[in-house]
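Spend some time on this chain, tokens included, and walk me through the fold:

. . .
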Amino acid sequence: SRNNSILLGQSEEALQLLASLHETNKQNEATIQTLQEKLADLSNERNAFRTKSESMMEDMLSQKAELEKELKKERKGFADASHAHKKEVEELQRSKRRLEKRNRKVDGSGSQMDF
């Protein structure tokens, strides 16, 4: 009877220990589940961020290419305008020289006729 009491006491202690271990195990499983969900959320956020970053990079590269094309057009336009202006100035200088030459001839001819 005394042995039975000891065995009964040990069995109760073992059952309490098992119940405690079972409860701890349930808590650990819940913690693991929570951590897995957080990890999945973080992975999804990271993937979304990476996708967004890649998309932003593509947009920036596209904008850069457009700006470079626009800059090239502007430079070409400026070069064309400068060239046209230079040609116009040269033509005006040639016209001026022709007119000056004509005026000298006219002035020279008129002077000789007055005598």
Q: What stands out?
A: Helices lie at 2-114.
